[in-house]
Specification:
316 residues, alpha/beta, 7-stranded mixed β-sheet, 4-stranded antiparallel β-sheet, 34% helix, globular, disordered N terminus, disordered C terminus
């Protein structure tokens, strides 16, 4: 992991790599300009797989500086553990994700990539999983190790040498939009998942009705802060359920079990949560992800050899 002596200098004046010439996920050179934001950062579209991504992207040094501050530069001796019972919207949303996961799986070995404050590990154990966690910042994860007994990893994910075909579930919520190399994450997850294991991904939905309207208004110059919804101060890739499902099926051999919008959760009493209006609204959000600004996807790694063949060919 890169160490930056003065993050504030880089953050005040971002640096960029050379523009990408091929799509990171499907390797197609058929790229076109799609949009930009109010600070001039560009969004490209792959005409082959429909992926949207920031292009050019920040340098590794800039991202190291950003995440050094994002993780409080590792200075977390009193790191609070996420509380699944604190009544917050985040805790309610995470709890609902595990209800969703439980409908399709039985507990086994669980790896949370981007485990943050450990709330996913606590919820996984509550559901009967043997939970392990990973996040990039070493100082932050060291503080988390002092609070939890779970195996917790940090640093460069690709140098951890996690065992092949070991996990029954890999869980990545609000992770895949951040790294410059999502294709490497997907290949690594495919390697460590056992045949029949599942991959959970949660992401912002760039093609929700809300995001589509913001894009249209921005391109028409009717929005003061054009492209703010891309969150390009730290999001580099922009997904939607259809594009991500097709990518996982075509290039990594997964079977997509479900792709849903996230239901509305949090800050409600059980009585309010159980009203017919809330139940209908959540059903619409789940079944029609276009109405929700984020989505969750669950995919299963097949038990045959075709998945490994496809992944190897894509990696080449």
């Amino acid at each position: 992991m890169l160490v930056v002596s003065d993050p504030s200098t880089l953050l005040s004046s971002p640096e960029y790599d050379a523009p990408l010439r091929t799509c990171p996920l499907c390797q197609s050179p058929a790229l076109s300009r799609y949009d930009c934001d109010y600070e001039g950062r560009q969004v490209a579209r792959c005409r082959r797989c429909s992926l949207l991504f920031m292009n050019p992207q920040y340098t590794d040094q800039y991202l190291a500086a950003y995440y050094a501050q994002y993780f409080h530069d590792g200075q977390t001796p009193d790191l609070p553990i996420g509380n699944p019972d604190d009544g917050s919207r985040r805790a309610a949303a995470k709890t609902d994700m595990f209800r969703f996961l439980d409908r399709y799986t039985t507990p086994g070995r669980f790896l949370a990539i981007g485990c943050s404050d450990g709330i996913e590990l606590l919820l996984a154990e509550r559901s009967g999983w043997e939970a392990e966690g990973y996040d990039v910042d070493e100082g932050y994860m060291e503080a988390l190790r002092k609070k939890l007994d779970n195996p917790i990893y940090s640093g460069d994910l690709f140098k951890l040498s996690l065992p092949d075909e070991h996990y029954d579930c890999v869980f990545m919520d609000q992770v895949l939009e951040h790294p410059k190399n999502p294709q490497d994450y997907l290949r690594e997850v495919h390697r460590v998942l056992r045949p029949g294991g599942v991959l959970f991904i949660g992401c912002p939905n760039i093609r929700s009705i809300s995001s589509r309207m913001k894009t249209i208004l921005g391109k028409a110059r009717l929005k003061q802060r054009r492209g703010r919804h891309y969150d390009m101060f730290h999001h580099l890739f922009f997904y939607d359920p259809r594009t991500l499902s097709r990518t996982l099926e075509t290039y990594y051999g997964y079977e997509v079990l479900a792709a849903q919008g996230d239901p509305m959760t949090g800050h409600r009493t059980p009585e309010v949560e159980d009203t017919w209006r809330t139940r209908v609204g959540n059903w619409v959000r789940r079944e029609f992800p276009v109405f929700e600004s984020s989505f969750r996807l669950l995919a299963r790694k097949p038990t045959g050899v075709s998945a490994a063949t496809k992944t190897s060919r894509h990696a080449a």
